[in-house]
Amino acid sequence: MNSSNVLKNLRSAATAEIQAIAIYEAECFWMRRSPHFEFLTSIYLEEIEHGQFISQFINVSAVEIWIQQFIGWILGTLLTLLPWKLLCRVQSWAESQAADIYSKALISVEAHPEWQRNSTLIAGLKHAIESELGHSALFAARYAQLNP
Fold first, then answer.
1. Which of 79, 109, 136, 146 has the fewest CB atoms within 10 Å around its CB?
2. CB-based burial, 45-75: b 16+ in 10 Å, e otherwise
3. Domain span holding position 112
4. How many domains does the chain have?
């Protein structure tokens, strides 16, 4: 695997994270008086941590950041129009997709001799995967509570 594939996969993870942060930002804004606000805020804060981590390893242009934030705010706003049960279902799926994106990045990093020496990156990617899968499970559990 060449270094450009590693960078491509890391860039995909970074742009997906930028978009996810904006989605949660919009959801928290529109649902600030909702009983679900604290739950969404806790996930939002973890997504910010992922974004800060991945930004240490890949630079994304200001234009691309703005575009992903804009798309994220639109998606987040639209998601708040859904019933909570459906929002949980969609977010559970989206979080599992984010875990897949991080998994691809991890696989490409571990397959490249130069990059596989970066234990901080590998540990951070593994943590992000676990966290995204955890978020997916949390949303799935909330969905299951509403769907006996």
1. 146
2. ebbeebbebbeebbebeeeebeebbeebbeb
3. 3-146
4. 1
HSE (side-chain half, CA atoms, 13 Å) at 106: 17
- State pTM to two decimals: 0.92
What whole-number distance in Å separates Cα of residue 110 and Cα of residue 124? Answer: 13
Count of C-beta atoms within a 10 Å radius of residue 114: 10
Q: Within 13 A of 73's CA, how many CA atoms are on the CB side? A: 6
Rounded-to-integer distance, Cα 49 and Cα 127, Å: 11
pLDDT tens per residue, the chain (148 residues)? 577 889 999 999 999 999 999 999 999 999 999 999 999 999 999 999 999 999 999 999 999 999 999 999 999 999 999 999 999 999 999 999 999 999 999 999 999 888 888 899 999 999 999 999 999 999 999 999 987 6
Per-position b or e across 24-38, b if 16+ CB within 10 A of its CB: bbbbbebbeeeeeee
Q: Which residue type sits at 108? A: S
